[in-house]
Automatic annotation (TrEMBL):
Residues 2-102 form the Methyltransferase type domain. PANTHER family: S-ADENOSYL-L-METHIONINE-DEPENDENT METHYLTRANSFERASES SUPERFAMILY PROTEIN, SAM-DEPENDENT METHYLTRANSFERASE SUPERFAMILY PROTEIN. This is Methyltransferase type 11 domain-containing protein. GO terms for biological process: methylation. Keywords: Methyltransferase, Transferase. The lineage of its organism: Eukaryota, Viridiplantae, Streptophyta, Embryophyta, Tracheophyta. One of its GO terms (molecular function) is S-adenosylmethionine-dependent methyltransferase activity. Belongs to the methyltransferase superfamily. Pfam families: Methyltransf_11.
Length: 156
């Protein structure tokens, strides 16, 4: 979990059966809090680390990287393009062949794709748009909640 913050997502993933989740965040405060909160959950590990420099991990050793709001937060900081480029380079380096980088972002796809397509990163990108339920036409609502997730293949 890249930039885990104090989100419940990793704990929820353990409930769903995931057995080895490495959570990193640049904030020592949040890592301390999360280590205490999740001390009883052996599937979760917490390390303070800058996602732009993860030499702690060997190349091609991670199955999947989940980023919920972390690239977004780098985009809001100084030297945004450089930070995002370093982050994606590191994520690309760590992933095993066939590994998945799941980017959950508020950003418009057009503002994210150019970063993802940086030299050296050859992602096969699928875009899923999660529509807000309040956009459901009513009455009656024509969609089940699952139909709000549409995949768009952006490249092959
Ligand atoms: C918008 S919060 C999202 C937190 C969590 N993923 C969630 O869904 O609630 C962004 C997180 O990224 C962390 N972060 C920001 N820059 C980082 C960096 N360079 N390396 C690691 N974590 C970073 C922040 O400390 C913060 O916890």
């Amino acid at each position: 979990m890249a930039g885990c913050g104090n989100a419940l997502m990793s704990e929820d993933m353990v409930k769903d059966g995931y057995i080895d989740i490495m959570n990193i965040d640049i904030s020592s405060v949040v890592i301390k809090i999360m280590r205490k909160r999740c001390a009883h959950i052996q599937q979760l590990k917490y390390i303070q680390m800058d996602i732009r420099e993860m030499s702690f991990f060997e190349d091609q050793t991670i199955d999947s990287v989940i980023d919920k709001g972390t690239l977004d937060s780098l985009m809001c900081g100084g030297d945004a393009s450089l930070s995002v480029s370093l982050m994606l380079e590191e994520v690309n380096r760590l992933l095993k062949p066939g590994g998945i980088y799941m980017l959950i972002t508020y950003g418009d796809p057009s503002l994210r794709i150019s970063h993802l397509n940086q030299p050296g990163c050859c992602w096969h990108i699928k875009l899923y748009i999660i529509r807000m339920l309040r956009h459901c036409p009513k009455p009656p609502c024509l969609y089940t909640p699952y139909q709000f997730l549409f995949p768009f293949l952006l490249n092959s």
